[in-house]
Write a sequence for this structure.
């Protein structure tokens, strides 16, 4: 388009009037020249904008089968997305992009449920655990680069901020494996005897939070020594999903038999508050019984807490700036949630049901569907952003506060 306008202007130069050696342009030509400059500028801005938007991509990685099986059929949870890592385009309505192969299911076998997911954009690695194994995938090629099987199996893992070390709980066992992220080699084991289950590595790298299914305390380990140094509680019952704030001062904890959550003071090690869901009945959840609220996420700005309600098929929103947190909204879901995650910028909330919620409007704006149109459900998902083919940032399967 700029070339066409230039030729057009060249033609218009001929009717110019020359007076005393000075070229004087007709007024219409001046207007056209101004238009040409404006359009050229707009064209360049648009080209740069298109290039930038095409360059960076925001993708959601969802590992399946990633929901708790609540049916007598051992492989019932395959109907929620099958087997693999399903990738969705967050920039285009969460459209299906591809399915990355993980492990094959042989005839007559029971599927290994996905237990955890973690990533590190700097090293270009994605890590997935099942009840029996852990695998590392190259984000550029989608190929598995290593796989390990250790005694006791695996559960919901955490990765160090520098991407070098993994804390991986055994499958509801006695200890956490400390693993070299580069090659999967076992560094050491941290024995707590608490039914190892959920793990969060603090954003500042200073500590690792360890939740055991058989313990009403949240433990804190020092990654420099791989020793438990603190504990928070006791809470009302055994600790289930949890999250923490960015300054390592507060922990928000789900426990058995409570529709709601509890708040603990990390600094003093004491429990502070019980926060119950108001206006909804308690009861037996479809999954994770007797944990009625199995999933809690703190937004990065630490203004809101999003809580799973497995009894009534809702997520509830709490004002985290209030003391104690105050219930402010409720969002109906398509199924019973067993987890809540967030996009990196917290624009979207991801309950494990496959519903995609716009955080600002608190409305469901999309549904995760695979290449067959099946609604995908998983508790193990996270966002990974790419600059071209290079991963540049990654989210977390937990919703963890980021304020220092």
């Amino acid at each position: 388009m700029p070339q066409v306008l230039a030729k057009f202007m060249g033609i218009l130069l001929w009717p110019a009037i020359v007076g005393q050696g000075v070229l004087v342009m007709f007024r219409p030509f001046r207007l056209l020249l101004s238009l040409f400059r404006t359009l050229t500028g707009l064209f360049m801005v648009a080209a740069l904008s298109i290039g930038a938007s095409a360059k960076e991509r925001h993708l959601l990685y969802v590992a399946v089968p990633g929901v708790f099986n609540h049916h007598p059929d051992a492989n019932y949870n395959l109907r929620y997305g099958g087997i693999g890592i399903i990738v969705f385009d967050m920039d285009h309505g969460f459209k299906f992009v591809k399915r990355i192969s993980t492990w094959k299911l042989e005839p007559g076998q029971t599927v290994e449920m996905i237990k955890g997911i973690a990533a590190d954009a700097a090293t270009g690695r994605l890590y997935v655990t099942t009840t029996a194994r852990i695998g590392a995938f190259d984000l550029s090629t989608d190929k598995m680069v290593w796989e390990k099987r250790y005694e006791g199996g695996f559960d919901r893992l955490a990765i160090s901020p520098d991407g070098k070390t993994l804390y991986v709980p055994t499958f509801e066992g006695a200890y956490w494996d400390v693993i070299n992220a580069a090659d999967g080699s076992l560094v050491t084991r941290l024995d707590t005897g608490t039914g190892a289950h959920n793990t969060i590595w603090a954003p500042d790298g200073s500590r690792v939070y360890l939740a055991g299914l058989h313990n009403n305390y949240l433990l804190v380990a020092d990654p420099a020594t791989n020793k438990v140094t603190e504990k928070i509680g006791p809470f009302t019952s055994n600790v289930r999903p949890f999250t923490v704030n960015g300054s390592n001062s507060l922990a928000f904890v789900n426990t058995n038999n409570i529709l709601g959550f509890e708040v603990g003071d990390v600094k003093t090690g004491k429990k502070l508050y019980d926060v119950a869901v108001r206006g909804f009945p308690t009861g037996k959840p479809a999954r994770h019984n007797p944990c009625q609220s199995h999933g809690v996420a703190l937004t990065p700005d630490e203004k809101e807490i999003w809580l799973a309600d497995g009894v009534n098929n809702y997520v509830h929103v709490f004002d985290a700036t209030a003391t104690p947190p105050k219930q402010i909204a409720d969002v109906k879901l398509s199924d019973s949630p067993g987890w809540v995650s967030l996009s990196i910028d917290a624009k979207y909330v991801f309950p494990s049901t496959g519903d995609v919620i716009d955080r600002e409007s608190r409305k469901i704006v999309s549904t995760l569907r695979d290449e067959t149109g099946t609604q995908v459900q998983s508790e193990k998902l996270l966002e990974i952003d790419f600059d071209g083919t290079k991963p540049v940032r990654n989210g977390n399967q937990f919703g963890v506060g980021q304020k220092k």
Remarks:
- The CA atoms of residues 216 and 235 lie 5 Å apart.
